[in-house]
Amino acid sequence: MLPVSIWVLLSGLDDLFVNFVWLLSFFRKRRPEPALEELRAQKDKRIAVFVPLWHEAAVIEDMITHNVTAIQYANYDFFIGVYPNDTATVEAVMTLDRRFRNVHLAMCPHDGPTSKADCLNWVYQRMLLYEESVGARFEVIVPHDAEDLIHPLAFLWINHYMDHYDMVQIPVLPMATPAGNLTHGLYCDEFAENQMKDLAVREIMGGFLPSSGVGTGFSRWALEQLADLESNRIFDPTCLTEDYENGFRLHRLNYRQTFAPLRFADGAPVATREFFPRTLRTAVKQRTRWITGISLQGWQMHGWQGGINQCYWHVRDRKGLVGNFVSVFANVMFLYGFASLLLSRWAGVSLHYMAAVNSEPLRFVLPVTLFCQVVQTGSRMYCSSRFYGWGFASLACVRAVWGNMINSMATAAAFWQFAAAHLRKERIAWLKTDHAYPTRAALVAHKVKIGEVLVMNQYCSREKLEQAVATKPADTRLGEHLMTMGAISEGDLYEALSLQQNIPLRLLDLENVSPVVARTLPAHVVEHYRVMPFKIADGSLFVAGPDVPPVDLHKSLREFTRLKIRFEFVSQSNFDQLKNVLSR
Q1: What is the DSSP string of 531-575?
Q2: pLDDT at 351 over 70
Q3: Are 50 and 235 in contact (CB under 8 A)?
Q4: Which bin fits 539, alpha (ψ -120 to 50), beta or left (φ > 0)?
């Protein structure tokens, strides 16, 4: 027990110190926050968004189409990296390339998977070719993953901080899931704590800021310096955690880094949101990559460089190589000790385990470790509650125990993978995690308002929009009021709605709609949901309507048909015409 207790004590004191610095940070003078109007008024730097892919055909279309319509920033382009032997993903990206003017396919010259960093390096080369062809220059580069839900204001904040910094990290937070999902809930707890506390303390103490891999803005100048030093490679292709590596490399070259403070807009955090692994297998797979890249490869490449301050953060980043195993053993000892205590009270006998606990020096060590653990758990619960509520945060201690088991399995796998690759003198391949993109229900809050879509796409002027907002009756929708004012046409409104909601717009001809198909759904359902069936094809029932469909539309209509429901927009006048003729 004594060696385990000493390790837990040292680790607990380390966490206690970080909590103490974090507490002191509440009394620091905060930097002034610019208003949203000031952010919009600043000159837009041109941003290149890098998205490396491997077998992501199922999610990349949703990712791009949602983010293109949600991001409140005009001067950006997506460069999407694919491998020639991933044909499904290549075809999906080619479709997006044809559909959106600011989406570009970046083909790697070799089959994959290699590493995420290698893919990103070839995306960078594709960006250089694009710049040569159009005479443009991107000033900021922001990597993202195929499952990322980019906050509409994220690029505005990156643009703002890039006036003073060379690397800006926008917060990253998992999407909310039920508290009973221990695996994904563990990510929620850890990221909330890391984004609120650990990264803030690193910045206060002058430590290097590791990139989170997504939502990180890099200045073009800084990345060009990395490219000059590393044979034109801005990301290290041998490293599984190129994000962490770049944070260290930039800090070592004295480039300024900052973590954008967590802030809320319309009740939601300004952060990159995504789903993380929700099963034991996928969580272990992802954490194996993190531990291999950060702890093992980082140690191999950099040792303990950076002086005492940086060595402290190296220790924190690598202590899991031992601590992840010790924590599981400590949990087992705790359960055994608790059971022994109950047994001794029930049987009225003194057990050997209880005698050991009451011996010196454990009588001193154990209360201190308990205090450290209570403070650490309390701080994690507080951070988690800020984004997911106290009900969710109350199970953080349970999820921490589950996390100890996951981390120990991932650490063992990392040691095995690292040693095997070293012995075979092979490069470790990209350990891709399967991704899922949020459902429409999760995306609704991030949609750009219809007025902004109309202005951004030049359907009406901002002056007309502001006039409409000021004069709109309470019971009238903004788009309808703009039509009444003559500022937009019905076609303009529905084209904007199609862009905003990422739903196709169709003009239906009565001659091409079968009355039999139109009566597939009961009349009261058509009346209630204001939808009209118009086609059956490829195992799907196509329905059209003039209103944004409710989130539960598909589920509700499945009660009347086994076919997959596909919704498309039609204008109000087109819908009324269909309804009057086909419902006779």
Answers
A1: -EEEEEETTEEEEEESSPPPTTHHHHHTTT-SSEEEEEE--HHHH
A2: no
A3: no
A4: left
State how far Cα 456 lies from the chain centre: 25
- pLDDT tens digits along 354-364: 555 566 677 77
Alpha-carbon distances of 461 from 213, 274, 453, rounded to whole Å:
38, 34, 11
Secondary structure (3-state) at 126 = helix
**Strand segments (E) across 171-271:** 172-174, 216-219, 257-259, 264-265, 268-269
Give this prediction's pTM.
0.74
C-alpha to C-alpha distance for 546 and 568, rounded to whole angstroms: 9
What element of type H or E holds 141? strand 140-143
| Under 8 Å between Cβ of 50 and 120 | yes
CA distance 316 to 205: 14
Tens-digit pLDDT profile for residues 391-411? 999 999 999 999 999 999 999
Report the pLDDT value the prediction gives residue 338, as an integer from 0 to 100: 76
CB 544 within 8 A of CB 506: yes
CB 142 within 8 A of CB 49: yes
Question: For the chain, how long is the longest CA-to-CA vector?
Answer: 91
- Cβ-contact 268, 445 below 8 angstroms: yes
Phi then psi for residue 107, to 5 deg, are -90, 125
Nearest to 51, CA basis, from 113, 144, 183, 118: 144
CA dist 538 → 453, 535, 565, 566 (Å): 32, 10, 11, 11
Determine whether domain 42-280 maps to CATH 3.30.565.10: no
Whether 459 contacts 496, CB under 8 Å? yes
* Spatial contact of 145 and 213, defined as CB atoms under 8 Å apart: yes
Token couple for 67: 């983010």
Neighbours of 461 (CB within 10 A): 12
- CATH code of the region 510-582: 3.30.300.160
CA-based nearest residue to 153, from 36, 62, 51, 261: 36
Q: Are 381 and 399 in contact (CB under 8 A)?
A: no
Alpha-carbon torsion (483, 488, 493, 494), positive or negative: positive
Residue type, 19: N
**CA atoms 63, 69, 71, 74: torsion sign:** positive
Three-class DSSP labels, 11-39:
HHHHHHHHHHHHHHHCCCCCCCCCCHHHH
3-state secondary structure of 82: strand
